[in-house]
Specification:
Its EC number is 3.1.1.-. Its main location: secreted. This is Carboxylic ester hydrolase. It is found in: Secreted. The chain is built from 10 helices and 10 strands. With 354 residues, it is α/β, with parallel strands linked by helices. Helix 7 crosses helix 8. The protein is globular, with a radius of gyration of 18 Å. The chain starts with 12 loop residues before the first helix and ends with a helix.
Length: 354
């Protein structure tokens, strides 16, 4: 059983920018939406004005939180209203501590079951109902939501274009027998592997898959008292190995995106980056502007970042013809964010129509 709760400390946005009043609302989806073996709850925010083929952002909550907490505790709904994307807020079926199942073999395996399958069913339903863009599906979360972010990026690389995890652990670190198993060994930083070993764990989640891999962003506080900072280094080893990158950064930016945070970029094609937050506990700040930029969610043209375009090694091609996947725009190319100032994206600009 998980022994902590998480109070999301935001980057000042919730206090400064209340949700815009409109007919759009946070709603529970009660109709059948596909395989959902653990009976995870499905909440959604659909803005009044949708972009053509709207992108989808999945935002799983933390332990002892719920879908409403992530809805009210961030600015993603406001940003969705500005840019026309849809936000899915899954709700954990675990009534004991409201943590996500990131431990069972089912949830850690592609289309095998667990909470992860229920969440991907929510995505598929939303894509079909709202003519969503299957090439622009993203996931971000904090704490247990960050763990689920790692799980979804690892087990469903064919669905998600990118992920951003705050105060999480590497995919498979909590693996154990049963649903929602708490791992003291992982939490305290005792589960460590080489990059190659971590990559093998991720690739075993989807046997036979050799296709395109999503890009990934991770953030962690150096004095995290719940999920030891060692886990940050394990995430770095895991995802750089999965993506075929060196685990040594190619560039480092101090005080980015805020004071005492250090951004490390790996490789030459913006495919993996890690943020170390000095002096920050498990109560890490949400950084919506940083996440919006990483996902390119403020983009509304045909050059937006999307699944299947670009790669960690600089190629702009696709792997094994996977760009033909439903919802892909065959003519779309990735918009490069290189050359932009690390501080160039501000929420004030995000909250204005381009």
């Amino acid at each position: 059983m998980v022994q902590f709760s998480f109070n999301a400390t935001l980057s000042g946005l919730a206090a400064l920018l209340p949700l815009t009043a409109s007919a759009a609302s946070f709603q529970r989806v009660d109709e059948s939406f596909g395989p959902n073996p653990t009976n995870a709850g499905f909440y959604i925010y659909v803005p009044d004005v949708l972009a053509p083929s709207p992108p989808i952002l999945v935002n799983p909550h933390w332990c002892h939180g719920d879908a409403n907490a992530t809805y009210t505790g961030s600015q993603y709904a406001t940003l969705a209203s500005q840019y026309g994307f849809i936000v899915i807020y899954p709700d954990s079926p675990n009534t004991v501590d409201k943590c996500w199942d990131v431990s069972s073999n089912d949830t850690l395996t592609h289309d095998a079951g667990g909470d992860s399958l229920g969440i991907t069913s929510m995505v598929r339903w939303t894509l079909a109902k709202y003519n969503g863009d299957a090439g622009r599906v993203f996931v971000t979360g904090i704490s247990s939501g960050a763990m689920m972010t790692n799980v979804l990026i690892g087990a469903y690389p064919d669905m998600f274009a990118a992920g951003s995890a705050f105060a999480g652990v590497a995919f498979g670190c909590f693996a154990g027998d049963g649903f929602d198993v708490w791992s003291d060994a992982c939490a305290t930083g005792q589960v460590t592997h080489s990059g190659a070993e971590w990559a093998a764990i991720v690739k075993a989640a989807y046997p036979g898959y050799t296709g395109w891999r999503p890009k990934m962003q991770v953030s962690h506080g150096t004095v995290d008292e719940v999920l030891n900072y060692t886990n940050f280094g394990e995430e770095v080893k895991e995802w750089t190995a999965v993506l075929g990158l060196s685990d040594k950064p190619t560039s480092v930016f101090l005080d980015t995106p805020v004071a005492n945070w250090t951004k490390s970029v790996y490789g030459d094609n913006d495919w993996f980056e890690a943020y170390s937050a000095a002096g920050t506990t498990h109560n890490i700040q949400n950084q919506e502007a940083m996440v919006m930029q990483w996902f390119d969610l403020a983009c509304t043209g045909n050059r937006c970042f999307r699944w299947g375009k670009g790669s960690p090694n600089g190629s702009n091609g696709t792997t094994n013809g996977l760009a033909s996947r439903a919802g892909m725009s065959s003519g779309a190319t990735r918009r490069s964010l290189r050359g932009s100032s690390p501080r160039s994206l501000r929420v004030s600009s995000l909250l204005q129509r381009q």
